[in-house]
Amino acid sequence: MMEELHSLDPRRQELLEARFTGVGVAKGPLNSESSNQSLCSVGSLSDKELETPEKKQNDQRNRKRKAETYETSQGKGTPRGHKISDYFEFAGGSGPGTSPGRSVPPVARSSPQHSLSNPLPRRVEQPLYGVDGSAAKETQEEHSALPTLMSVMLAKQRLENEQLAQRGGGLCFTFVSAQQGSPSSTGSGNTEHSCTSQKQISIQHKQSQSDLTMEKLSALENSKNSDLEKKEGRIDDLLRANCDLRRQIDEQQKMLEKYKERLNRCVTMSKKLLIEKSKQEKMACRDKSMQDRLRLGHFTTVRHGASFTEQWTDGYAFQNLIKQQERINSQREEIERQRKMLAKRKPPAMGQTPPASTEQKQRKSKTNGAENETLTLAEYHEQEEIFKLRLGHLKKEEAEIQAELERLERVRNLHIRELKRIHNEDNSQFKDHPTLNDRYLLLHLLGRGGFSEVYKAFDLTEQRYVAVKIHQLNKNWRDEKKENYHKHACREYRIHKELDHPRIVKLYDYFSLDTDSFCTVLEYCEGNDLDFYLKQHKLMSEKEARSIIMQIVNALKYLNEIKPPIIHYDLKPGNILLVNGTACGEIKITDFGLSKIMDDDSYNSVDGMELTSQGAGTYWYLPPECFVVGKEPPKISNKVDVWSVGVIFYQCLYGRKPFGHNQSQQDILQENTILKATEVQFPPKPVVTPEAKAFIRRCLAYRKEDRIDVQQLACDPYLLPHIRKSVSTSSPAGAAIASTSGSSNNSSSN
What we know:
Number of helices: 20
Low-confidence stretches: 23-80, 87-147, 169-207, 361-371, 723-750
Strand order of the largest sheet: 9-10-11-12-14-13
Mean pLDDT: 74
């Protein structure tokens, strides 16, 4: 480094010294001195006092004269002007050109007139960091007269460290000079200024000092490199994992597409199989219907003036039974005639003489040639017994024919229903198995109402059978009427879709087909409704009827516990579905088209709510308050459903309605049949328990204030489980009555 320093121009070297030594010095009047003054001296004397007379005399001349070119060699130099190095001598050095970094730090040589009275300079050991990271402790002699060379060396080393730090990742090599100035004999202001400069430079050097060794730096560098390698490895792992995940996503996407395609094929095949099965069932139904047309009967069109009407014609099965009944009737008449003749030939009793008139008749008969044999008493009784047996046999045969006729009538009802269904299905626009809403495959028609058709369908999404109710509006209706009907259907949908109870048919979906038709998707039940069952069997046992009523009351209790409560208002056997088609199974309530919502705005707990749809519903099952006509609409509550429960229970037990049994709805309305139904009457047969009759009376109380509500109905003693035990463990007379009623019900149902 000294070789590079000596190669500089002396003036530039002095300027460099002044630049580096003036870094930490405060600005003041001393800065106006000559540039060769050393502001970084450790001693108490100024640079002017340390300068030689030669330097002072030739100061201005040396600044204006260009420096001579010189060469520096190891321990040898050419004659040249005075340099700063001439005023320093290096202890242990090989010459003035020896680098201070390779020998002991130099000690400044003072002029004779400025010799100090200090003791020997202190020896301070400072760590010196090399390139290889080793810290060698070198002895540095500190002298108060050490001027600017160390500052130059430190500045030069600092530049090299900064360059190395930029190239080598922040490695820093620093010389720290811990110097102590000797006391000055003059005590001038320059000495104080020089000491201040040295303190500031020392503080600046301490701030740039580092405690890191090369081992620590290497360890840090290795740790950084290892962390970097780990991060790069982690990044590579994540990239590979990302690629694997993308590959898996692609594979799963392909599998998904494959499964979707397979699912579509399965759905297509399911549709094909369902349609084939439905067509086969339709063909079988039509074949059976054609056979039953001959056996059970059919409709024929008969013209009456300008109109045509359909008339029913019985089949050969009914004709044969009618012929058998006619034969039995003729045989009975013949037997009765013979019995009358036998009575005329009855012989007199023992010990009695025949009257004279009898003798005269016998004579007349003899004269006419028609002699009637006289029967003995034994012959008479024998003939009389034969006639009685024949009459008994005819009566038994007639009963069998009557039972067969009733059975055929039930079958004929099914046949007539099937004929109407087939006729409606053939005239329907949905007969060719369309798929509605890309989901519901229509299979066959279940029934048809006024403005709706109910189809059995298959849900291709949920893979289940459903009932699709298609509402079709009359195209000739006004828009206002269509809007009203659609509003009514939407109201039913909003009510029904919120209900979730095992005794209530579930509503799955609702969608529109076009401007004049829309659909509701309901839960499908295999069996028929209670109305069809009663038409087939007339009545049922009390246990079966009680089971059905318990399930209905359970559903009504749920409807009154939800918020807001709901009045069904249209409870009847046609809206009670038998799940398996028998009276001993589960039931489900359907058809909420006339339901009333008892919200806070329209319902009053005391008076109830206004009946806004008076005239709607089925009149046989509505209470008297629904028929009251006045200035204001009548008030109703959930007691309307309680009345309906009583009517249904009565009909299940006795096979007939309690009020207006053989009347039409128009007759009921005109004759005020329900308004006159102040008390219910029970027929003597079939025999019903008093508890059941009392339950019916509580349900059919004329005044709604006297009638129980749904909550009280659910807690009625007759419907509680312990009542069955009390009924079964009642008195022998009661048990005999119950068994008699059960046997009579079974015989009547058979």
